[in-house]
Amino acid sequence: MSTNTAGTADGGGRERPYVIVGASLGGAKAAQALREAGYGGGIVLIGDEHERPYERPPLSKGYLLGKTPREKIYVHPPQWYAEHDITLRLGTAVASIDPAAHTVTLTDNGEIGYDKLLLTTGSVPRRLPVPGADLDGVLYLRRVEDSDRIRAVLRPGARVAVIGAGWIGLETAATARAAGAEVTVLEAAELPLLRVLGREVAQVFADLHRDHGVELRFGAGVQELTGAGGAVTGVRLADGATVAADAVIVGIGITPDTALAEAAGLEIDNGVRTDERLRTSDPDIYAAGDVANAFHPLFGRHIRVEHWANALNQPQTAARAMLGQDEVYDRVPYFFSDQYDAGLEYVGYVEPGGYDRVVFRGDPATREFIAFWVAEGRVLAGMNVNVWDVTDPIRELVRSGRAVDLKALADPAVPLTDL
Prior knowledge:
- Helix content is 22%, strand content 29%.
- The protein is an alpha/beta fold.
- Helix 1 runs parallel beside helix 9 (308-322).
- The chain is globular and about 60 Å long.
């Protein structure tokens, strides 16, 4: 199929560009993919941050710890955008989208016409809905300036309370401990990552953090944040106990940033609903990354994945689909995490409670193992902890959809490729 080299013309005879809303990893990768696919028309990449597109995983890992230099987090060097004739509009927010007119209106009342539009608006942190949540020292982690603010409070002896034992909460807790802070993690559930990983594997992470000196409080309901002189001093729990804190890091999840899409009349369902080509309910508007609830051909259903790999890879599919190529997104979801001396990779997709059992290959107590989530003998997902170069065979097990010998699955002597 031929590749478009320019956009359609507007009423004044000018070629309308492809517009990408969200100068994120996803937005930058989409612009790159359009150029690599041979698109020669205008590309406008719009972002409300003043930083050029960067990757978010380092914000809770190496960059937060001070080991990854700031320049290393950016997707492209500063000159890359001009060299590829991409108009980068930073510090600029989109106020609205008019699908009928094919225009976006900016908050400064500027207007840009588009031929095709891609939404890579990502997600926003859930705010803590309790008294005192607006005190100084109450911190969230989403943007690079958030990471800078958190890093400033991570010092030896600092008392840090982390609310939420999800991936962000646990990664920031690990980084805080590495910096010498005293860390208390407060989680409403019985174990960290319980909904995501299930009890068997969640216990591994509870043990990991306890072994590194983190105080874990489960079943903890946060009633209010206490303060003095406008700054946070602690967290008061529903049982009346108070956890003293010089800083409170809130990691209670994120929600897809769908406000623009919803106002534009696009179909919304736990994100912007798209088909397998990442096309929304409007044929000229696409969505990728955290914000997209995309139909996945392998799983036969819509799924929304809040991880780096989707922001990295979905835009390539969206870009080619925007150019009329027959492209679908069917990659198996993947993510990674680093906490203390435990590095892990997870491949696959499991709904909470949507599995029969967890099969371990290796001993979880040693933190060198693979866990497989299995239903009716089929591997739905696998997570390798401090075991490397196994993601490809795990991915193939997931993709195959075939039942496997569970005894062989658990046996480290049986190569995964034999299954």
